[in-house]
């Protein structure tokens, strides 16, 4: 049974990067423990505050953010961090080589109803000597990521990550407090008949997305020629994990509720890390019109439309958008 550090060493990951990833994992173990305590920890429920996204912060959003921020900005190899819960990027060490972006608690609307939530993280290398409190140093496309992963706090706590050598899954052994390798070389089935989308937004979608979903709902008699099933967990980490395990397609498309926003999900700490994982597992990840990892970020909180999962199904959605 291999531990995370043994797997990273075997992949030839630089020691400094391993130390950065290890600090992310130390914080995530603490988050996992606090979530397991639930009401007993007295940390469920919402705060009085809104984050930069305009979303009400849950107590655990703030606690998780602070755990990750505090340990990472103190790491000598971290130049800075960007977080969904931080207005601006936060400087770490001026000599640090790595930049870490994260969504500390994705799907946090699920916390108070005891459903799955997760932490998503992405690691980039600083390309110049700009300080980590200048967002410019983070603004690199997803292809520049050197590592990406998530921790899914479900019935078991799972770490899923890649350093560009395929996707591995580790299960948290709570008896010893270590993530243990339990699956290697994950491959997403190329085809699927299971889509994940929030149907309540249908009237706000672009015509191309409406047409694809309409055709899915026509089933065997429709142009897609098969009966589809639907899932929606309201936690991207849980959706992506299901897709890694059995295939599927997850979509959070552009919608006109707020035309100024490219979508709901954020490029730097949701779209890009999940795209690296999905592509490393043989899947595809697109805005509907271009690969997500080719999108040039303009700001740390940029939003992006997301269509990811089984590569042949993603190709169909892209084809609908190119008609
Ligand atoms: P909706 C969670 O808030 C999140 O960012 C993703 O994890 C999830 O897929 C999506 O938003 C859920 O959005 O509009 O269905 O609540």
Question: Any overview of this molecule?
Answer:
This protein is an alpha+beta fold. It has 2 domains: about 5-185, Fructose-1,6-Bisphosphatase, Chain A, domain 1 (2-Layer Sandwich), CATH 3.30.540.10; about 195-320, D-Maltodextrin-Binding Protein, domain 2, CATH 3.40.190.80. About 30% of the residues lie in helices and about 25% in strands. The strands form 3 sheets. An 8-stranded mixed beta sheet has the order 4-3-5-6-7-8-9-10, with helices on both faces. A 5-stranded mixed beta sheet has the order 12-11-13-15-14, with helices on both faces. Strands 1-2 form a two-stranded antiparallel ribbon. About 50% of the residues are buried. The site of 6-O-phosphono-alpha-D-fructofuranose (P6P) has 10 residues, from loops. One of its GO terms (molecular function) is magnesium ion binding. It comes from Thiosulfatimonas sediminis.
Question: What is the compact description of this entry?
Answer:
By secondary structure, the chain is an alpha+beta fold.
Q: Work out the count of structural domains.
A: 2
Low-confidence stretches: none
The hetero molecules present are: 6-O-phosphono-alpha-D-fructofuranose
Q: Helical percent range? A: 25-40%
CATH homologous group name of the largest domain: Fructose-1,6-Bisphosphatase, subunit A, domain 1
- CATH topology name of the largest domain: Fructose-1,6-Bisphosphatase, Chain A, domain 1
Beta percentage is 15-25%
Class of secondary structure makeup: alpha+beta
State mean pLDDT (0 to 100 scale).
97
Number-wise, the strands total 15
User: Which series of helices and strands comes N to C?
Assistant: HHEEHEEEEEEEEEHEHEHEEH
Q: What integer value in Å does the Rg equal?
A: 19 Å
């Amino acid at each position: 049974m291999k531990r995370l550090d043994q797997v990273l060493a075997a992949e030839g990951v630089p020691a400094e990067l391993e130390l950065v990833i290890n600090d992310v994992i130390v914080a995530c173990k603490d988050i996992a423990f606090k979530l397991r305590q639930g009401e007993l920890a007295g940390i469920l429920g919402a705060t009085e505050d809104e984050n930069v996204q305009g979303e009400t912060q849950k107590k655990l959003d703030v606690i998780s953010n602070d755990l990750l921020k505090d340990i990472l900005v103190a790491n000598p190899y971290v130049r800075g961090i960007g977080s969904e819960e931080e207005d601006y990027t936060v400087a770490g060490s001026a000599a640090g080589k790595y930049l870490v972006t994260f969504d500390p608690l994705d799907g946090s609307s699920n916390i108070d109803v005891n459903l799955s939530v997760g932490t998503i993280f992405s690691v980039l290398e600083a390309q110049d000597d700009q300080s980590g409190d200048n967002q410019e140093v983070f603004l690199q496309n997803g292809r520049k990521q050197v590592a990406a992963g998530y921790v899914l706090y479900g019935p078991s706590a799972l770490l899923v990550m890649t350093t560009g050598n395929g996707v591995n899954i580790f299960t948290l052994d709570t008896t010893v407090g270590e993530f243990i390798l339990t699956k290697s070389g994950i491959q997403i089935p190329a085809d699927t008949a299971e889509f994940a989308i929030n149907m309540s937004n249908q009237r706000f979608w672009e015509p191309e997305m409406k047409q694809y979903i309409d055709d899915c709902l026509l089933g065997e008699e429709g142009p897609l020629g098969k009966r589809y099933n639907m899932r929606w967990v309201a936690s991207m980490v849980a959706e992506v994990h299901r897709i890694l395990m059995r295939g599927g397609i997850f979509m959070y498309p552009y919608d006109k509720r707020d035309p100024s926003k490219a979508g709901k999900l954020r490029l730097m700490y949701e779209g890009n890390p999940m795209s690296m994982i999905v592509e490393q597992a043989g899947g595809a990840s697109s805005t509907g019109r271009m690969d997500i990892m080719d999108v040039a970020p303009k700001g740390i909180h940029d939003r992006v439309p997301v269509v990811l999962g089984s590569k042949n199904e993603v190709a169909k959605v892209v084809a609908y958008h190119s008609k």
